[in-house]
From TrEMBL:
Keyword Transmembrane helix: yes
SUPFAM superfamilies registered for this protein in UniProt: Rhodanese/Cell cycle control phosphatase (SSF52821)
Protein name: Rhodanese domain-containing protein
A Pfam match: Rhodanese
Native organism taxonomy: Eukaryota, Sar, Alveolata, Perkinsozoa, Perkinsea
Length: 149
């Protein structure tokens, strides 16, 4: 299972936290993924409370080693249940984009389903209205044909 698939299986399309454990010098050269929490690995034990425990965490660094250490620490020492290390910033960015695209696709499908349900309801209302109109048209004519006999 790929990291993307693991994140997706864990959170569906709900929010997840992206954690950048690179050092400050690395972040100055290449900024974190948009929306990521930046906590250098050495500061993680002191700052772990900045990471929400109630949602999955995608962790990255420059090459994957520190991300693996951070993931182990978060799971074993801090009680996090869904932590996914990935190799680098580009990989993290790709996973974020894939999850977002998947969520967007599901949202489009849900919107389409709501539109179809709405169309069915409108269709049923139109048919019902037509039936009522037909009965309303037919009853007076039937009465007048009985009255003329």
């Amino acid at each position: 299972m790929s990291t993307f698939e693991a994140v997706l299986a864990s959170c569906g399309h709900a929010d997840f936290t992206v954690l950048d454990v690179r050092n400050d010098d690395e972040v100055e050269k290449e900024p974190p993924v948009k929306g990521a929490v930046h906590i250098p690995l050495g500061e993680l034990p002191k700052r772990v409370d900045e990471i929400p425990k109630d949602r999955p965490v995608l962790v990255y660094c420059a090459h994957g080693t520190r991300a693996n250490h951070a993931a182990s620490f978060l799971i074993q020492e801090c009680g996090f249940s869904a932590v996914f290390p990935t190799t680098n910033r580009d990989s993290a960015q790709e996973i974020v984009q894939q999850v977002k695209a998947h969520a967007d696709e599901d949202n489009r499908a849900a919107t389409s389903a709501r539109i179809k349900r709405g169309a069915l309801i409108v269709g049923a209302v139109v048919v019902s209205a037509a039936a009522v109109a037909a009965v309303a048209w037919w009853i007076p004519r039937r009465r007048s044909s009985h009255d003329s006999k």
